[in-house]
Amino acid sequence: MYSLPLDTLLKRLAAAAAVLLISVFLLFGLNWGVSNSAATRADSRELAEALVGWSPSDPQTQYAAAVFAARDQNDEGRKASLAGFETAVALAPRNYLIWTEYGRALERAGEVGRATLAFDRASELAPNYSSVAWARGNFLVRQGRVDAGFIEIRRAIKGTPSYAAAAAQLAWVSSGLDAERAVQFAGNDPFLGAALSLVLARAGDLDQAIGLWRDVPADLRTTDLKDTGLQLARIFYDSGRYRDALDVEAGTLWRAVSVGSFRDPGFEEPIATENSGMFDWKLGGGTNPSINLFDTVKRSGKYSLFFRFAGAGDQRSLRQLSQAIAVEPGAMYRFVYRYRAELTTSPDIRWSVASAGSASALADGPPLRSNTDWAEESFTFVVPPDTDGIVVTLRRDACTGTPCRTDGNLWLDDLELIREN
Questions:
Q1: What share of the chain is helix, strand, coil (3-state, %, to 5)?
Q2: Residue of 152 and 88 predicted with greater confidence
């Protein structure tokens, strides 16, 4: 009878044992991997709890089940959630995310002391993570430790500036709607300061809002905070604070701030029909006249602005040209304009100036007349003491009879506002 040598038998037994051990390890790993992967995709509490039964020692399944339990918002759900998070942190004591959610669960359960320790632990594990600082800061604010909370919130914003808008609202509410206190919460963070300036402007505290905005670094105003600046400028404009609106908009669009001056007085840039700045040239609705830059008939620079009227008779279809200008209240200005015209029109076309807020007329210029060379004309007006904005418009008088028609060509160039007092 043939028998295997002892050493050969032992080797085969060892190999079999190794295969069995590897199989068990792979089965356990597969179980863990499948459960862990499924837990990250679970879409119901029932599924999450089933995965806990499949792999109870996986912190991810315990975490998922706890998150879903918390959504039920009842006593049973809160208790199950808290138990799940407790198990999860025991299984993964260095997972900052689980500690953060554990802190929230403890806060919901009214265990503020333990919640504080949980948030502190999450911060220790992930001291540079914005989400942790944000959660911890909000927790501290809810517990009445507002100053300490905003230290954390500002840390969060440094890493994730998109938190700034919500933080500004929180600062405003936490201050008891006290603007000066809210500004203290903002500290020196430019993103939070900019967001808070928008909150304060919407609340009507325009003086605090403009002060905060002016503290924002210029490079951020034209880049990351450009949209905030344009929103803020619109609020100032709609509130009748035209010089402040010009200041904010010009700084946001990287343009010179010049109170009492036209923007592009020589028509060197195309006039945008949409998405133009509040102090840019504007074209009203309508189809007549056609308006373009013109490079062969000009007084200076590269271009003039050319109008081609083709039998414009319908007043509603006639396009008007206008620009809002920030000015000094109570000042007297002279409006100087240059033009060349080949016009046949009834009624007359003329420049007019009105108050930007009330639209009340301040002055009308003389009618434009046909000429063979560039003409220069002017008229004066006084800005009311209660406004700092005007609108200058090229318009046609109202039709009161027949004929009501405009034909011909018009060129404009080199407009000026000159202060006379």
A1: 50, 20, 35
A2: 152
